[in-house]
Please model this.
Amino acid sequence: MLEEAAMIQFLKRFDENPFLVKIKGKEYKIGEGEPSFTVNFKKVIPLNDLVTSTSIALGEAYMDGDLEIEGNLYQALDHFLGQMGKFSTDENVLKKLIFTSTSKKNQQKEVSSHYDLGNDFYKLWLDETMSYSCGYFKNENDTLYDAQVNKVDYILKKLWLKEGMTLLDIGCGWGFLLIEAAKKYKIKGTGITLSKEQYKEFKERIVKEGLEDYLTVELMDYRDLPKSGLKFDRVVSVGMVEHVGRDNYQLFIDCVDKVLKEGGVFLLHFISALKEHPGDAWIKKYIFPGGTVPSLREMISAMAEDNFHVTDVENLRLHYNKTLLCWEKNYKEHLDEAAKMFDERFIRMWDLYLSACAATFHNGIIDIHQVVTTKGINNELPMVRWY
Model:
């Protein structure tokens, strides 16, 4: 009884959106007004677990089936996660989890743990471009595929590419951006990734598209770029800087500086936060080990140190909310196939991940920014964004 009372008392802090808690035949209403969702606890979560990490305690309970949401998971999380500022995280207890090593070896392992789950798994719920980053929904009826094509097209336009230019993609994923750049602008492109699965798939796509004369992909850490001797007219990085760690943001920008030609354009597309924080413990434990969300201001500050002039900043937050909801819908439609690859705990974990991320973008817990910069002064770019 005491444990149950302590858990309910803890949950009462999340009273902005009323919800119902069910446990062992009893019901507790939290907040004023009509409950917007119901949480059914099969067992009590100890107070100590909730205080050490609210997100790990609740996340693991959901993964284990000890916590069920009655109704739509995303809608419940959308109501609940707007109050993430009230979550408890004991950084001393979770130090090793929250602040991981930024060594090359460890970061290779961390990246592999997420992106090397298998190309067949990602093909279940990504669109056919295999784009695993925020889409760009120009029109209300755009499909996920339309949005990913729009996003790449938009980025390539912002880079102001011309035939014969050289383009580096840091964290190139499965290569769609470079493939489109080579086809539409006839650029010479290089992609780098730490994921063996992405490297393998991208290599196959280059051959399939007949782009061997235009594109190459390397298994390479961004820190090895300066000694590569390579120089580029343009550099792009989409959804990768979140993996380098707060201590390495300046180093990351320094490495871009070393390989970008004077007057060159650098576009950085990244999940961002309003202020600097170490990140969510559950996400770090189960989804993105070592992942840290930069603030917009710290990335721009690092750019200024290397004389990068910011020409454009755009927030695509609601586009990522919609992208994630598309992924979650696709994932749910392919649960049977996913269940042949992974166990029930993983299946529930991945659903929670996609739904929770969609909710955090909707609530402005995190944003996503595209920042366009030039190395030094470039007076050749158009004066307006809508080029």
Observations:
- The radius of gyration is 22 Å.
